[in-house]
Amino acid sequence: MRSVWILSVLIWTAAAAGAEPPREQIEFFEQKIRPLLVKRCYECHSDQADPLQGGLRLDRSAGLLAGGDSGPAVVPERPDESLLIEAIGYKSERIEMPPDGRLPAREIELLIDWVRRGAPMPADSDAAAVRRSGIDFAAGRQFWSFQPVALRDLPPVSDGTWPSARIDSFVLAELDQHGLSPSAAADRRTFLRRLAFGLTGLLPAPDEIDEFAADTGEAAEVKRIDRLLASPHYGERWGRYWLDLARYSDKTASWLSSIESAWLYRDWVVRALNEDVPYDDFVRRQLATDLMPETGPEDTPALGYLGLSPVYWKELMLDKEVIKGTVAEEWEERIDAVGRTFLGLTLACARCHDHKFDPVSTEDYYALAGVMAGTRLTDRPTIPAPEAAVVQQARERIAALQEQIKTLEAGKPGAADSKQQIDALKREIAGLESDTPQFHVPLAHAVDDAALYVLADGPNATKLEYKPGEPIDLHVQIRGNPSNPGPLVPRRFLTVLSDSAPRPFGAGSGRRDLAEAI
Prior knowledge:
- This protein is mostly helical.
- Helix content is about 45%, strand content about 5%.
- The strands form two sheets. A three-stranded antiparallel sheet has the order 1-2-3. Strands 4-5 form a two-stranded antiparallel ribbon.
- Helix 8 (about 190-200) packs parallel to helix 10 (about 220-230) and helix 11 crosses helix 12 (about 265-275).
C-alpha cells in the first residue's frame, strides 16, 4: 500500500511540475471543481488571501501537493487519506473546513470524485514558487553569532604601549578610528572605589582607601582585586544578574504549593560564583545535576532554575483540550527562559511558526518542548540518600498521624477520650520531629524525569498523569494549538547549532543531553 501511495505522489508531482493531465480531466476540473474552490476556498487559500491561512494554497497544483502547515492537502486517488476530504467532511474536530459550515453533500461528492481521479488540474509553469520555503540552516550557521569563538589578529593602533591586555588593542583601534584618545588613568582612590563598586557593589571602607593609596607596590592592584573576588559579596552582587535572567522570585501565587525554600537556589547561585564554578558545569548543574554522578545533594538546589518555573492554574473540571493549552504555556515559558538565558535566542517565537529572523524552526521548538514535557517540578532533599530516606519515612508517619487527628477532631469534638488520644498523637509527632536527624533540613525546589499526560477524566473533565522515568516526544502543535497535532518530533538540540542533522537525545527527559549540547 505504501509503495502504491508513493508511486501516485511521484506521478502527480511530475504533473505538477509541467506534465499536463488529459484534456477531459482538465475540463472536469475547470467546469466542476475550480468554480467550487473559488466559491468556497480561495478567499483564504489562494494568492488573493491576505494573510494566507494555514500556509495552504489551493489555486496552484504544486501548492495543493506541498500542502500547508498540516501537510499535503490531498493524496491523489485516495480521498480517504486526504486531509482536504477529512476537513470538508467534518470527520475530525481538529480540522473542519469551511469553518462557517459544512458543504452541501453534492459539493463534497464532487471533491471526493476529483481526488479519486488523481486531483487533476492545470500544471504550473513555476511550481517551485508556491512550495513552502524552509530554513537554510547551512546559511544560518554562517551568521556571526553562530560561529565558534576565534582568536582574532590584533588591529594596528596609534600607541602600542597603551594596551595592557588584548581587549585594549580593540578599544584603542576604535578610538583611533573616531579620532579619540584614551581617558587619563584614574587616581588610586578613584580606582579602588570603581573596583569595589564593580566587584561587590559596596564602597570600600575609608581605612582601605588610605591603605591602598599608600601602597605603591607593583602587585598592589592585583592583591586588591584578588581580595575583592574572594569576598562573599562578589557572588551576591553578580549572582543577582543571573537570578534576574533565571526569573527568580521568593514569592508566587497563593494557590501554588509553597516555595518557602526558594532561597536555596539563590544561595546556590551565589556560592557557585564565589567558588568560580566553570560555566559549563554551571549550565549542567542547573539543568541536570541529578543525572550527574560527579555531583552530590549539595548541588540539588541548582535544579531550582527549572524547579522554580511559573506554574499556571489548571481547572481540572474543564475539558482536557483546555488544560493541554495551559500545559503548553508552561512549556513555552521554560523554553523561552532556556533560550534567552543560555543561548541568547528567542526560541518561543517558533512555537507557532518558523522563527521570522533566526534559523530556528517549529520542529526545533517542539524537539525542546519534549524535554520539558518529560520534566516534572518536585521537591528533593539536599542531604545524602540514606539520611533522606529516614526523614521521608518520618514525614510519612507524621502525615498518617495528622490524618488520625483530623478524624478524631471531626468525630467527637470535645470528648475526653478523643482529647487524650489527640494529645498522645501530637506527642508522637513532636518526638518524631525532634528525634529524626536532619528532619528540619528544607527540601529544594527541583525537578525529576516524569512524562506528563493530559487525559480525559469523564465528560468535560481532566486528569494529569505523570509516568516517572519515561521519556516523551511531542507532535508539532500547528499554529501552537495542542488540539491540532502535526508530525512527531524526537527530542534533540537546535539544528543550526548542530554540525549536521542533530542526533535524538537519549534516555529520560533529555535534560542531560540538552545541558551537554548547550
